[in-house]
Specification:
This protein is mainly β. It is about 10% helix and about 65% strand. InterPro entries: DUF2490.
Length: about 220
């Protein structure tokens, strides 16, 4: 009897565990991005992301990021920055759960070019991740590359798409891949709204995410008379 019960129990536990990942549920990322120009060569990056396992709740991750951008020219930008991340990696909502926290330093380089009406952006990023799991801490390093394509439809509307791969610099090299597509609306000269879809692929699991993002890029440079 024990020989029959044990594999059945293992299978049942595996099914229950698989259901708790939230893979079959649509989640949502609500985001703000800003590039705050303070001089001809410098700007400040500001960013806040609120990520959920469901579109209406069930907290997954808070990400706050900032950085100093150096504008080499209009098509090349170098950035040194910092991010704080709090993550709940379980789909089930648990009372008084302790989330793991991360402090992150990153270096970034962006190159832009235009082919016809298509705007291309290549983003290269290195990250040093200092993660506090509660019972222990860990330091990890990661490289990221994102290829983004933007196509203006009119002066007001545009479409935006990208693919980004994450590569671990320790252990298993593949981290994740993000495929994104969105429709955008230019609200003012320096702000826009994007509503899109993200497929977030990991080694053993995939997530579907609704994305709503606001971009606001104020120019604080003093205008010459």
């Amino acid at each position: 009897m024990k020989k029959i019960f044990l594999p059945i129990a293992i299978l049942f536990f595996g099914i229950i565990t698989a259901q708790d990942t939230g893979e079959d549920d649509w989640g949502a990322w609500y985001m703000y991005f800003g590039t705050n120009r303070i001089s001809d060569k410098l700007s400040i990056h500001s960013e806040a992301q609120f990520r959920y396992y469901n579109t209406g709740g069930n907290f997954n991750q808070l990400l706050l990021r900032t950085g100093l951008n150096y504008h080499i020219n209009s098509d090349a930008i170098a950035t040194l920055g910092y991010a704080y991340i709090a993550t709940d990696n379980t789909f089930e909502e648990i009372v008084n759960e302790v989330n793991f926290k991360e402090n992150r330093i990153f270096q970034q380089f962006i190159l832009r070019n235009k082919v016809g009406e298509f705007l291309f952006e290549h983003r290269y990023r290195l990250e040093q991740r200092f993660i506090d799991f509660g019972s222990f801490t860990d330091t990890q390093h990661r490289a990221r590359y994102r290829l983004q394509l933007t196509l203006p439809l009119t002066d007001t509307f545009f479409v935006n798409a990208y693919d980004e791969v994450f590569l671990n610099l320790q252990d298993d090299i593949f981290g994740q891949n993000r495929l994104y597509f969105a429709f955008g609306i230019n609200i003012t000269e320096n702000s826009n709204l994007q509503i899109g879809y993200l497929k977030n692929h990991f080694n053993q699991i995939n997530f579907d995410r609704l994305q709503i993002a606001v971009f606001f890029n104020p120019d604080f440079r003093k205008k010459s008379k």
